[in-house]
Design a protein that fits this description.
Blueprint: H1 6-12, E1 30-37, E2 40-47, E3 59-62
Antiparallel strand pairs: 1-2, 2-3
């Protein structure tokens, strides 16, 4: 029996792993909604698929913290 430590598995991944195949992520479409507050705008991100929406499945972020990850690779 061979024991593989999680750190060893992590080191075997490609430098730019495929999110689905290599990491097991399921891709989903999300929508952003801008909400204004006294101290600045926020973006609320929710799943685009209403069936996937959950009262705990959302992200709130300040507008200035958002970026396009493809531009920052």
């Amino acid at each position: 029996m061979t024991i593989v430590r999680s750190g060893d598995r992590w080191n075997q991944l490609a430098a730019d792993p495929d999110p689905n195949r290599d990491l097991g992520y399921e891709l989903a479409e999300w929508e952003s909604h801008r909400v204004s507050y006294r101290d600045g705008d926020r973006l609320v991100l929710v799943p685009a698929d209403e069936d996937a929406f959950d009262s705990e499945a959302y992200i709130v972020a300040s507008a200035q913290t958002m970026c396009d990850v493809l531009e920052h690779r």
